[in-house]
Write a structure and sequence with these properties.
By secondary structure, the protein is an alpha+beta fold. Among the domains are: 3-73, no CATH class; 276-373, no CATH class; 379-511, Glutaredoxin (3-Layer(aba) Sandwich). 58% of the residues lie in helices and 11% in strands. The protein contains 20 helices and eleven strands. It has helices at residues 3-27, 52-95, 106-116, 124-134, 143-158, 162-166, 168-181, 186-208, 216-225, 234-247, 254-267, 272-285, 289-307, 314-328, 355-368, 408-412, 414-423, 440-449, 464-468, 495-511; strands at 32-37, 43-48, 339-342, 351-354, 379-381, 387-389, 397-403, 429-435, 455-458, 476-480, 486-490. Strand 8 (429-435), helix 18 and strand 9 (455-458) form a beta-alpha-beta unit. The radius of gyration is 33 Å and the shape is globular. It starts with a helix and ends with a helix.
């Protein structure tokens, strides 16, 4: 039954009651006798003598109260209609590829705030999720406050319900399946995913707020590990990690927890400061030496990525490299045999390595695979089966492209790669694509339909070549100057990266 129908029924019932009251007033005398039967003690008679004007006043108050009630219900329904109207308008705007100005969100935000201020409103959860999801990436000055208030309302409404947390994976699977059937933008699909996360994370937060809840540890672990590709819920990840640190001094799964923190840091630059601060606290304050060493590793990995940032100066890069080497050196002292799961484990596959080997690998990466470092000696295999050394390409600007036929983003960049290759002089520029497909035949068959008329290596899915250049995702682009010094690393062919390539070629031309 809709809210409007319920309101109509309530209004009709009230009118009937008023008509009965009017009839009663017409036929009753001024004296109204009230009788109360009280069990076996007999009948007690009481009487009151209200004048007709008083009964009339009661009727007026009754009518006034009803109209106030009706106005309140209409206002509450109206508030949600304002929010829903904005959601529909914003969705239509995205459906037109953002043609024109986006709809104004301010009225919808005000309406959502009005809803969550009433904890008994039937749309409290929806309004809270609206504030959390639609303001999450907003640059509005009231965005942060709106997200916080939405979260607080959601936590209070959902409550410390462990069954909600347990139902997370099933709910996420359902929403992903539903998304596949909906004709909406990717951004809107991600919002639906966010709503699912936030509802279950709210239950976990509510559990953490109870002093001795039996599922506190599990709720904190859920907050750290609740992950969706490309999304990081930083506040909850850090809250979960801090809870494990502060409430469980003997916590025994820091390797997994610290690894998940790094996964969050990879997909969100905004998460980096908070997660780095947590790593620093664990590296310097943990009572467990193994935890200290693992935290130092991840702290150093973050510094290693910072060295590659395109926006920093050469002097800043040098300072970061020195700091990273300081943190890396000696991190395994006394805990050499403690193992950690890393991207390049045994046989260059993901797996566990002793910290002593992890430390050596990390120091080597800082020295030889970061921007400003000279690339290491590596050898690959051309598609004709001949081995070739990377050093043979030096003397030119070299762009290395790690890719695979199963990598959609890699293939999507090929038109830009072809355009770049055709536009630059071949005596000053080389493009080397390195396939990590398992089988060579897969690559050669692909090239029949998608020509790549530049140098190509096939190194397979188990090779030291990606490890030697610290390749972690696909595509990866590494730009070398004519001396083999790494100028830039990037995961896509953005305009600034392309400009760096062209500037390097121009510089190489001038040198010659």
């Amino acid at each position: 039954m809709s809210s409007e129908t319920q309101l109509g029924i309530s209004y009709g019932s009230t009118l009937s009651s008023i008509l009965v009251l009017i009839q009663w007033l017409q036929f009753e005398s001024d004296i109204v006798r009230l009788s109360l039967d009280i069990s076996e003690f007999g009948r007690i008679r009481a009487c009151c003598i209200p004048p007709n004007w008083l009964l009339g006043a009661i009727l007026i108050v009754y009518l006034f109260g009803f109209h106030c009630f009706a106005d309140t219900v209409k206002a509450e329904l109206g508030n949600w209609q304002v929010v829903q109207s904005y959601i529909d308008e914003e969705s239509a705007w995205r459906g037109t590829n953002k043609d024109g100005e986006p709809p104004d969100i301010s009225e919808a935000v005000a309406a959502a705030h009005a809803i969550i201020e009433r904890t008994d409103h039937p749309k409290t959860i929806e309004a809270a999720l609206f504030l959390m999801t639609y303001l999450r990436d907003s640059e509005s000055p009231f965005a942060s406050e709106g997200v916080q208030k939405g979260e607080r309302a959601l936590v209070e409404r959902v409550g410390p319900d462990w069954t909600v947390v347990e139902g997370f994976h099933a709910a996420l699977g359902e929403i992903i399946t539903e998304n596949d059937t909906l004709d909406i933008s990717r951004f809107e699909k991600l919002r639906r995913v966010d709503s699912t996360f936030f509802r279950h994370l709210a239950a976990a937060v509510a559990i953490l707020e109870i002093e001795d809840h039996p599922q506190t540890r599990e709720a904190a672990e859920f907050m750290v590990t609740a992950y969706f590709p490309g999304r990081c819920y930083t506040r909850y990840v850090v809250m979960g990690a801090e809870t494990l640190r502060d409430r469980y001094p003997q916590y025994d799964d820091w390797g997994t927890t610290l690894t998940f923190l790094d996964s969050c840091r990879v997909v969100s630059n905004e998460a980096t400061p908070a997660i780095d601060h947590f790593y620093l606290s664990m590296a310097t304050s943990s009572i467990d030496k193994a935890v200290q060493g693992i935290a130092r590793y991840f702290l150093t990995v973050g510094l290693q990525r910072s060295i590659n940032a395109p926006s920093i100066s050469k002097n800043e890069r040098v300072k970061l490299r020195i700091t990273a080497l300081d943190w890396a050196t000696g991190l395994s002292d006394g805990i050499e045999e403690v193992e950690l799961f890393v991207r390049y484990g045994p046989d260059s596959r993901p797996g566990n390595l002793p910290l002593e080997q992890v430390e050596r690998q990390l120091i080597r990466n800082i020295k030889h695979t970061t921007v400003g470092a000279r690339v290491p000696e590596i050898t690959g295999t051309r598609l004709n089966g001949n081995d070739e050394r990377l050093i043979e390409y030096l003397g030119k600007t070299v762009l290395i492209d790690f890719w695979a036929t199963w990598c959609g983003p890699c293939i999507a960049e090929f038109p830009e790669l072809r355009k770049l290759w055709r536009s630059l002089p071949k005596d000053r520029f080389s493009l080397l694509s390195i396939s990590v497909d398992e089988h060579l035949s897969t690559v050669t068959k692909f090239l029949e339909e998608e020509p790549m008329p530049w140098s190509n290596w096939h190194v397979g899915n188990v090779s030291d070549v990606p490890k030697s250049l610290y390749e972690r995702s696909y595509p990866t682009y590494i730009l070398l100057d004519s001396h083999g010094v790494i100028l830039a690393r990037c995961g896509s062919l953005i305009d600034s990266f392309i400009s760096t390539v062209k500037d390097s070629v121009d510089s190489t031309t001038q040198q010659h």
